[in-house]
Design brief:
Elements: H1 2-26, H2 30-33, H3 37-63, H4 69-86, H5 104-127, H6 133-149, H7 172-184, H8 194-198, H9 200-216, H10 218-230, H11 248-262, H12 269-283, H13 289-310, H14 316-321, H15 324-342, H16 356-378, H17 381-384, H18 387-397, H19 407-426, H20 432-446, H21 448-467
Helix pairs in contact: 1-3, 1-4, 1-7, 3-4, 3-7, 3-9, 3-12, 4-7, 5-10, 6-7, 9-10, 9-11, 9-21, 10-21, 11-12, 11-13, 11-20, 12-13, 12-15, 13-15, 13-19, 16-19, 16-20, 18-21, 19-21
């Protein structure tokens, strides 16, 4: 028991520090302060992690600040103290009734299943070490080099004779690993930091509930949470699941949270910066984070533009212009990350088609070839259960639900992400079937928040139609 606690407590302690830092940041956003406490804690976890790890990267990159307990704690304490002066606003906000009254049994089932799954993940974290190829060869290795050198510019990154599986990979999550170890002076780097990764699952579930409840009603939101919690791909089976040390789940959480924060009719300056910080964290989490963040901004701008056109007294251009602070911050972070990675000699990286004309032709040629290998992944019962046998029926029956306020941007983000993945598959020299087998389910984790918001929208429309006595939700 003592040994298990010694593995869990440092990760939980570091997570509490991230939450405290994030609460300080969210104190400046009216939109985040208005959310229920549980939802706000989920956003705070991500904001604090983005601030501490991203801030440590920027301080090390520009000022050569070294990793230490003091540097990490100072970065975390400053926003928390500023938030205290502003007023954290942790008193429970007045809840507004959703489109439908939530069923207590459904909420209890969703929370119970999510709790059991999370407990199982924590048991796995304590009992096993990391086993995935990418987690050990990329992020864990990067974290070891970073901690050993004590700085962002680890010398091994620039040594062309040193073998690194992906030398230019973003290092946000490896810095998180270093933060956990430095703050609590731990040596076990394969299990203790995985507690931080495991917490991304309840955070992801909270994000899905927040996005779905505002767009489709609480009944549909609880159904979406219960469904996601029951799918093994997000918890145990996939290489990118919550029980691993991969960065796919963190990327999905940062991307989804940023999109939800920015997708508001009245977007104030602090909220826009918070959304930009979350999307910036996605950029520093994985290579595909930059294009996905750009797609998210474009999708939200589209939703704001449509929202402005449908609103009285608010022009489409004015609505979309409220994203400028987030866009500016995201641009600066993308340029900074690109500058850091380009200084590192590129070796042992997967080749990619760079000629635009050839990339377009190859993508168009390969799109029909994607369908069968992707379906093989989706119909795999140990990974997805029977979700993808029923989801298309719900999407078709509840298409009317996609007209709801805020749903267009989530739908556009989902479609845009699918288009990006199609281009990624079109530009690779890898054997297509092998690449899809190793990446597709991880891609689905990355786009899980908008995907399950869209799923909840269709499900909510279907439920309302059935209650009204109609057999279909077509409109």
């Amino acid at each position: 028991m003592i040994s298990s606690l010694s593995l869990l407590l440092p990760g939980l302690g570091a997570s509490a520090i991230f939450v405290a830092c994030g609460l300080g940041i969210s104190a400046f956003s009216r939109a985040l302060k208005a959310r229920p406490l549980a939802i706000r804690l989920a956003f705070a976890y991500l904001l604090g992690m983005a601030w501490v790890s991203g801030g440590m990267f920027l301080a090390g990159h520009f000022l050569d600040v070294r990793f230490s307990r003091t540097s990490f704690l100072v970065l975390a304490i400053v926003p928390f103290v500023a938030g205290l002066r502003k007023g954290l606003g942790l008193s429970r906000p007045v809840s507004r009734p959703g489109p439908t009254r939530p069923r207590k049994a459904l909420a209890f089932a969703a929370l119970a299943v999510a709790g059991l799954v999370f407990f199982g993940i924590l048991c796995d974290v304590v009992a096993t070490v990391q086993s995935g190829w990418d987690s050990k060869m990329i992020w864990l290795t990067q974290a070891r080099y970073l901690r050993a050198s004590g700085k962002v510019h680890a010398p091994v990154f620039y040594d062309e004779k040193a073998y690194l599986a992906a030398p230019r990979y973003p290092i946000l999550m490896p810095i998180v690993n270093v933060a956990v170890q430095e703050i609590f002076d731990t040596k076990d780097d394969e299990r203790i930091p995985r507690v931080v990764y495991a917490l991304f699952l309840p955070v992801l579930l909270a994000l899905v509930f927040d996005g779905a409840a505002r767009r489709a009603g609480r009944d549909a939101a609880w159904c979406a949470v219960l469904t996601l919690a029951l799918i093994p791909n997000f918890s145990f089976v996939s290489d990118g699941s919550a029980s691993t040390g991969y960065s796919d789940l963190p990327l999905g959480a940062f991307l989804g949270a940023g999109a939800l924060v920015l997708d508001r009719r009245r977007l104030d300056f602090p909220t826009a910066l918070a959304g930009g910080l979350l999307l910036g964290a996605a950029v520093f989490t994985k290579t595909e984070g930059a294009p996905l963040a750009a797609i998210a901004i474009a999708a939200i701008a589209f939703g704001q533009w449509r929202r402005g056109g449908a609103s009285k007294g608010s022009s489409s251009l004015r609505q979309a212009s409220r994203l400028i602070p987030a866009l500016a911050l995201l641009f600066v972070l993308i340029v900074t990350r690109q500058g850091w990675s380009r200084a590192i000699p590129d070796r042992y990286s997967a080749p990619f088609v760079e000629d635009p004309g050839r990339l377009l032709r190859q993508t168009i040629e390969r799109i029909p070839k994607l369908v069968l290998p992707i379906w093989r992944e989706l119909e795999d019962a140990p990974t997805w259960g029977h979700f993808w046998w029923s989801a298309p029926l719900i999407f078709a029956a509840g298409a009317r639900g996609w007209r709801a306020r805020g749903m267009r941007s989530q739908l556009a983000l989902t479609i845009g992400a699918l288009g990006f993945y199609a281009v990624a598959y079109g530009g690779t020299y890898w054997i297509l079937e092998h690449l899809i087998h190793s990446t597709w389910n991880r891609f689905m984790i990355q786009m899980s928040v908008p995907l399950f918001c869209v799923f909840a929208g269709a499900l909510g429309a279907t439920l309302r139609a059935l209650r009204a006595g109609r057999g279909s939700a077509w409109g």
